[in-house]
Structure formats: C-alpha cells, structure tokens
Amino acid sequence: MRTPDRLLLSLMLLWFLGTATLYAWRTPRWQAPDEPAHFNYVRYVAETGRPPVLVAGCYDQAYLERLKRLRFPPSLPVDRLCYEAHQPPLYYYLAAVPYRLALAVGADPLLAVRLFSVLLGGGVVAVTAALVRTLFPTPPDVALATAGVVAAVPMHVAMLASANNDALAELVLALTVWHMVRLLKKTTSRPLDWYMLGGLLGLALLTKTTAYLAFPLALAVVWWRREVIAAQARGSVVLALCIALALGLPWFVRNSLVYGGTDVLGLQRHEAVVVGQPRTAEWLAELGVARLVKRLIVTTFHSFWGQFGWMAAPLPSWAYSPLWILTSLAGMGWGLRLWARRHLWPSAVPRGYALLALWIGLNVLAYGWYNLTFVQHQGRYLFPSLPALALFLVLGLQEWIAPPYRRIGLGAMVIGLAGLTWWSLWAVLPGLAP
C-alpha cells in the first residue's frame, strides 16, 4: 500500500476511534442491547476472579420492559440482570482490567469497558483492510472503501462503543478469516500456519458462539487445500484441531459440570431462564406468515444501519430511503457482474470470494435459525460477517462507476455514511436519555 493510502487508512482509523469514543461517552447508561447484563458479568469477574453462573432470576421480562420503557432511570438498579452469564469468558476477563483501573482512579467503570470495546473495534477496521488487501493486492481502493464501510455504519459504531462481547468476537472472527485467506493464496503451507489457525479457533471458542462460524469456514479451507494437506501437512491440521479443542475444552467441561449433561454452551439453561421473551410461534399466530416476514426484513434492514438503544431510537424515515437505494444498486451491480462473467462460473471462482460468500451465508442461516424460536429482528446479528458484507457492497456499487471515478464514488459513499453516523451521534442518541 502506497504512503498516501496508508495515510488514508490511518485517518480512517483515527476517525473511527474518535467517533466511537464519542458514542461511548454520549450514549446514555445501559442504552445498548443487553449492556447491563454484559457489564454485570465483567463486574463479577473483576470482583471474584470467577465466571458467573446463569440461574433462575437472572432474567425478569417485566422488570426489563419497565427499565426500557423508563429509559433506565438511576432510581432503578440493573444489578439483577445477569442473563448473559452463560457467555464464554474471554472478553469479560480482558474487560475486567480496565474495569479495575477505572475504579482505582475514581473513573466510571462502564465508560472504561466501553472504551475497551472501542479499541477492539479499531482492530476490526484494521483487520478488514488487511483482509481485503490480501484478496486485492492492487489497487487499494476496494480495501479502503470496505474498511470505511465497517468503520462508518452507524449501528456498528454504536455496538462497538458499548459494553458487550461483540467487538472481540468480530475481531477474532475477522483475524481467523484473514488467516484462512492467506492460507488459500499460498502454494505451500507450513505447520506453523495451521497451528496459528488452531489457536485462533480456540480463541473463538472462548469468545462468543457467533465466532463459531469460523469452524465450518475452516473445514472449507481444509477441503480446498486437501491435496497440499495430504502431501505435506496432515499431521499439522490434526494438531491444529487439538490446539483449538485444548483451549476450549476446560470451558466446556466447566459448563457440563455446572449446567449438567450435554449443556456445554449453557444454551439450554439460557432458554430455560429467559422466560417471557417474545417467541416466533406467538407472533406467527398473531401476524401470519406474510406480515411476519415483512416485519423481519424491514426491521432487520433498519436496525442493521441504525436503530439505537434497545431498538427504541431508529433513524428518521428519510435516512433509510438512500440506504435502500444503495443496497439495491449493490445487488443489481452484482447481478451485472455475475452475468458478465457467467462463462467463468463456477470453475474459476476465486476461493477467497467463495470463502467470504460462505461466511455471509452461514451468518444469515444462523440469524434465521435463531429467529425460528425467538423474535430477534435485529440487524446487528449480521455484524459477525460485516467485513464480507461490506466488501460485496463495495464491489456491487463499483460496477456502476467508471474506473477513473471509482475512488471518488466509493469515497463519497463512505463519507456519506460517516456523516450519517455523526448526525446520529448528536440528533438521535440524546433521545435515549431518561
């Protein structure tokens, strides 16, 4: 990457860190999805050195709805919200460090944990640029624009500026996919390459179940590289899997002992505890298939771009129209791109493209599967594959722009998103205050 492009990427990172810091500072307390429960996990770890146990009473639907309705007034405590206690522990042990430091100097521990998430989010932006640069060595326009989208989607910035484990899960997943792309592009692979993959997969096991998407992606990489592996690195691949399992196994054993039997992820206990959460079957009976699907699509789209707090503060309606147009143009651009290259498919599809498409597909399937049981029409659940989604958005839009003007056009798109993020910071977030 040339010096001017490195400067642009550095400025983009500085912009993200500054803007996300303002989001962390200006977002009213607890006005991010599930933030009280995530913060209480961090506090428990910081005070006891142990992960908490998810028990009956950690989730009170009526009390939570009251808190959301009243915008979390200081008079109503959030200490009893502990329904995220089943989550893997890595983020919370790391976040316990800034929590303790904040208490030591008399600062706000919630803000300290939020700023820790901001730093992790900066890593997501940087790794996105590196991932796309690995796919597209020249020119750097696509990598810069893709990283810019990741850095400037308003809802993504808001989530990366809150106390939750999403930022670390996104960072670990992006690092893992970047490493996989590098493996796919190499003509040979060293044992160390596979050991690194095993370590990253192990970190995913300890971070969040959304990061478990890395495992089917890793299987795809092993399949695509099977000839090289058979000749050179079969033992290395097996050892990499052992490394991943060795990192995750203590956590799974602990959960089996605490929650019983095969509940190694704590999800069975979680489903038993979150009584009262809206169920898809109930909404289906009330709304019917057509209305439920329409609501799923519209709400997912809106909340992907910006619907802040606990889905209580959407962007104004005028802001969504250009985003619908932008997304539609990208989709049609991909239609044109595929049609023009139809004679090359599927044999000449670069495996890096296929890996990222699989990443998106698995994320969408996981999102749909979750919504078969619980009503969770929240676009933020697609952020685990945001680097790939952003890349496909950029490549689709690029089809409509003549080559000499692509940098200008893509730059204008990123600047427009950044402007919407800044506008939301001052015009939308204050409406979440109690």
Description:
- The protein is mostly helical and 434 residues long.
- The chain has one domain.
- It is built from 18 helices and 2 strands.
- A two-stranded antiparallel sheet has the order 1-2.
- A hairpin with a 4-residue loop joins strand 1 and strand 2.
- Helix 5 runs antiparallel to helix 6, helix 13 packs across helix 14 and helix 15 crosses helix 17.
- The longest helix is centred in the middle third of the chain and has 34 residues.
- 43% of the residues are buried.
- The model has no long low-confidence stretch (mean pLDDT 93).
Task: Give the topology, please.
Blueprint: H1 3-26, H2 35-48, H3 61-69, H4 90-105, H5 109-135, H6 141-152, H7 154-160, H8 166-185, H9 191-205, H10 214-224, H11 226-259, H12 267-273, H13 280-287, H14 289-305, E1 307-308, E2 313-314, H15 317-340, H16 351-373, H17 386-398, H18 406-427
Antiparallel strand pairs: 1-2
Helix pairs in contact: 1-5, 1-6, 2-4, 4-5, 5-6, 5-8, 6-17, 6-18, 8-9, 8-10, 8-16, 9-11, 10-11, 10-16, 13-14, 15-17
Determine the strand fraction and express it as a percent band.
Answer: under 5%
Low-confidence stretches: none
Write down the overall mean pLDDT: 93
Morphology call? globular
In percent, how helical is the residue content?
55-70%
Tell me the major beta sheet. Answer: 2 strands, antiparallel
| Total helical segments | 18
Name the strands of the widest sheet in spatial order.
Answer: 1-2
Straight-line distance between termini = 47 Å
- Could you say which structural class the secondary elements and strand pairing correspond to? mainly alpha
Q: What is the N-to-C order of secondary-structure elements (H for helix, E for strand)? A: HHHHHHHHHHHHHHEEHHHH
Indicate how many domains the architecture comprises. Answer: 1
Radius of gyration: 22 Å
Number of strands: 2
